[in-house]
């Protein structure tokens, strides 16, 4: 258990308003920042004189920092103080946002985005851990985690719109100054949070932390770089390094008395549900939706702001659905609702197949709405399962593991969707055909994820 007492159902915990509002605001900012370059990639690339390979890193570098740091930071927060790590994440996000805002070259910008990813990991993992430590299991936690999950959808909706609007009004760098100011505000607001940590810290697992972080970083880097050639020696070397490091991490954790990640959790169906559900969400939902706004611009000729507004049908419905997920009957297990969310996302993606250069944007509105509703339901349930599937004093670690799977899946999803969509060429008709194939593959994967979630939810 944690040093912050667990409240009874229905009991209001002192400081609970801040314990929900501050992590929710942090998640909103982190996701807005994560998606901001989607709408301004052309302007950013031009401003930094970035070539084809560099453009890939401009978009994907933040995923490297996120995926590599989430689990490690979540575990550190449980042992050394969630508020302390949260505040450190806010400071790091402010500094790295300034670096991005003033970056003279693409490598400097990419470095800033990687640090932004690690800083965002601190906000995401500890924020959900703070919520779990404040709200006991039951309806109040379900409401709180639903609001936290809703911020994922809202951040995805607002990020491209805000960055595109600021770019149109001035310069693409303006968003990063806004992100820096928001991060400073979060750091100040964190002073209102109560500190929470495990009663019995496990100590710093340096070998596990190093091998896991470096292994995940190598894997995400290989996936990102692989988009320009999967058989390049550097890409293959990164995949090999990832395999060795992650195998070493597994061996280290299996032998430690108090590991950073208790491998025994993998025998829990609820933990497997949290990890697999997040992985499928990243792979089959975030991957294809991250690419769709760009496709609307390239194939249909929509402006960047118009494309972001169309995509907001999906992300906006995700936000609304996640907020309302707490109204679902309590007798329905979170695992079954997660499966239903993934199935609904799949139905929406099936409905979006049929892109052609002469199509109208409203042709995709029903599919975007269905997929958005499914994504919102899945996000709310994933947030709940992430903290309910681990011991109470490891809530931030559970959040970190869940989000690691989500953003690792998103990295793979973006790479696979990009490869399929551009496989027949860059002409609008060829890109439209490739996108339809990618949408079909994503829908099938989402359906398989829904079936897996249902099996894990009902099995023993």
UniProtKB/TrEMBL annotation:
<feature type="transmembrane region" description="Helical">
    <location>
        <begin position="206"/>
        <end position="228"/>
    </location>
</feature>
<protein>
    <submittedName>
        <fullName>MFS transporter</fullName>
    </submittedName>
</protein>
<feature type="transmembrane region" description="Helical">
    <location>
        <begin position="234"/>
        <end position="252"/>
    </location>
</feature>
<dbReference type="InterPro" id="IPR011701">
    <property type="entry name" value="MFS"/>
</dbReference>
<feature type="transmembrane region" description="Helical">
    <location>
        <begin position="298"/>
        <end position="323"/>
    </location>
</feature>
<dbReference type="InterPro" id="IPR020846">
    <property type="entry name" value="MFS_dom"/>
</dbReference>
<dbReference type="Pfam" id="PF07690">
    <property type="entry name" value="MFS_1"/>
</dbReference>
<feature type="transmembrane region" description="Helical">
    <location>
        <begin position="174"/>
        <end position="194"/>
    </location>
</feature>
<dbReference type="GO" id="GO:0022857">
    <property type="term" value="F:transmembrane transporter activity"/>
</dbReference>
<feature type="transmembrane region" description="Helical">
    <location>
        <begin position="114"/>
        <end position="135"/>
    </location>
</feature>
<feature type="transmembrane region" description="Helical">
    <location>
        <begin position="147"/>
        <end position="168"/>
    </location>
</feature>
<feature type="transmembrane region" description="Helical">
    <location>
        <begin position="272"/>
        <end position="292"/>
    </location>
</feature>
<feature type="transmembrane region" description="Helical">
    <location>
        <begin position="437"/>
        <end position="457"/>
    </location>
</feature>
<feature type="transmembrane region" description="Helical">
    <location>
        <begin position="407"/>
        <end position="425"/>
    </location>
</feature>
<keyword id="KW-1133">Transmembrane helix</keyword>
<dbReference type="InterPro" id="IPR036259">
    <property type="entry name" value="MFS_trans_sf"/>
</dbReference>
<dbReference type="GO" id="GO:0005886">
    <property type="term" value="C:plasma membrane"/>
</dbReference>
<feature type="transmembrane region" description="Helical">
    <location>
        <begin position="56"/>
        <end position="73"/>
    </location>
</feature>
<keyword id="KW-0472">Membrane</keyword>
<feature type="transmembrane region" description="Helical">
    <location>
        <begin position="85"/>
        <end position="108"/>
    </location>
</feature>
<feature type="domain" description="Major facilitator superfamily (MFS) profile">
    <location>
        <begin position="19"/>
        <end position="460"/>
    </location>
</feature>
<feature type="transmembrane region" description="Helical">
    <location>
        <begin position="335"/>
        <end position="355"/>
    </location>
</feature>
<feature type="transmembrane region" description="Helical">
    <location>
        <begin position="18"/>
        <end position="36"/>
    </location>
</feature>
<feature type="transmembrane region" description="Helical">
    <location>
        <begin position="367"/>
        <end position="387"/>
    </location>
</feature>
<keyword id="KW-0812">Transmembrane</keyword>
